[in-house]
Amino acid sequence: MTALVEPDVRRWESWAAMIQDFGDVAQMHGSGHWHLEGPPVPTRAGCEAFVLMTELTAPADPDGTRVPSTYFWITAGDGGWDDEVVGFVHLRHHLNDHLLVHGGHLGYAVRPSARRRGHATAALALGLQAAARLGVEQALLTCEAGNEPSRRTIERNGGVFEDETAEGLLRFWVPTAS
After folding, report:
1. What is the pLDDT of residues 20-48, one digit of tens each?
2. What is the pTM for the complete model shown?
3. For labeling, which of 7, 19, 30, 117 is most exposed (least CB within 10 Å)?
4. Would you list the domain boundaries of the chain?
5. Which residues belong to any copy of the N-acetyltransferase domain (predicted)?
């Protein structure tokens, strides 16, 4: 089973193990931009900084790339406190010109040790349900042209290929209601 949960410092140990599994990255590919100074630190304080970042509702960035959004953590289980944190979902509430080409409504990432277990497909389905609750009828998702696992995840959730950008991103529209 897979669940989406709100980021919460009480899950810091599982979050820290996930961060270590991903490695030393300042921005997790597929999970949206993290507005942190450098990579997340796999400590309780690092988790606190990450959770604070997810709660900020700042206005759009000067370059127009940031829009209101919701961050989720993916857990292996039903969302209980002892469930392992296995990834991220980032839901952007609407699109701007930048996101229409480069990001889409939803981004997701599953830690390397938890891949190939169905978490990405299930988490994306849950993210689409959350988008529907916001009034998004069709969600845009993108993935790199060579990222076959992500492409299959999008297609398993009903994604319809639209085009490939000049930067090599595949764009799909996915209905949010089944």
Report:
1. 998 876 566 666 666 777 778 899 999 99
2. 0.91
3. 117
4. 2-136
5. 36-178
